[in-house]
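Both lines are retained for reference:
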Amino acid sequence: MTEKALRLGTRRSKLAMAQSGLVADAVSQVTGRPVELVPVTTYGDISREHLAQIGGTGVFVAALREALQRGEVDFAVHSLKDLPTTQPEDLVLAAVPEREDPRDVLVARDALKFTDLPRGARIGTGSPRRMAQLNAYARAHGLDIETVPIRGNVDTRIGFVKNGELDAVVLAAAGLNRVGRSEEVTDFLSVDTILPAPGQGALAVECTADNAELAAELAELDDPHTRAAVTAERSLLAALEAGCSAPVGALADLLGDGQIVKEMRLRGVVGRPDGSALVQLSTTGPVPQTHDQAMALGRELATEMLAQGAAGLMGERAQ
């Protein structure tokens, strides 16, 4: 008798299905059980409104969490950057697998790099965080660009460039890698130019807290360094009291010599979408060994950023 398949809840988008498929294969190997994908439509997938107006990227998570809570799926896979910073008590973040490339990338016409774009170039992004940093970089380097708010999946966004509506769009490297379209990238944007969203490139595997056996099996997919990094990044976001769609970038990376990791550096940025003001700071400390240490690193940097006026750059602070 074959074991009953585990049901994995996922958004319906091509990217979500691709990344959930990767997790499904890994879970099958760990548990020896088949895994079936259960596509769930979320409000964020059907609404045409801009994300900032409908509650940020958390709208992609709510329907999956409800399916978990109702027992319609056994576990769910989210893009970690979409997760609200407060974790429901009845759900557990069982695994954060090894992170993909956290960088943002440019897909531009004529294979152009960011600094080669013509004057007045129109760059599409749905993210206030990307707008703030693109515009700030352009101001600092004498570039003349216009950021244009867009929505839609990878095909739709790249389509704006192909049909000539936009000169370029900014996307996450991880997403393009996971759907096998990294060859369309014309420029990898250095994290020194644009800090990614907190948790960008990482996945979150979630199940109900009362399913201890499954949680323990899923935990085998966890990558401790990735978890420490994204915990610090999300702690910064939470301490700034900013929602997932706020113009906040953060990246924690490991510093060391060769194979020996010595420290973790956390960088954070917040800015006005027009790029007229940015607060960008970093802090370095021992690699966190516990959840609390990683949280403390994020809070410490947030405190410094707030002291430099970060709150005033975020518009309405999320409740």
About this structure: The longest strand covers residues 260-271. Residues 51-55 have pLDDT under 50 and may be disordered. The radius of gyration is 19 Å.
